[in-house]
Specification:
The chain is 69% helix and 0% strand.
Length: 35
């Protein structure tokens, strides 16, 4: 097991946010949300 250092916690949070945001961005690029 690896120790949960603050830097690693930040990296994990960023990765989770990317997993949430990237599908939204690709859907927007595909024209699902027209501005």
């Amino acid at each position: 097991m690896f120790e949960m250092t603050p830097a690693r916690v930040c990296i994990i949070i960023v990765l989770i946010l990317l997993l949430i945001v990237l599908p939204l961005l690709t859907a927007q690029a595909n024209g699902a949300f027209t501005l």
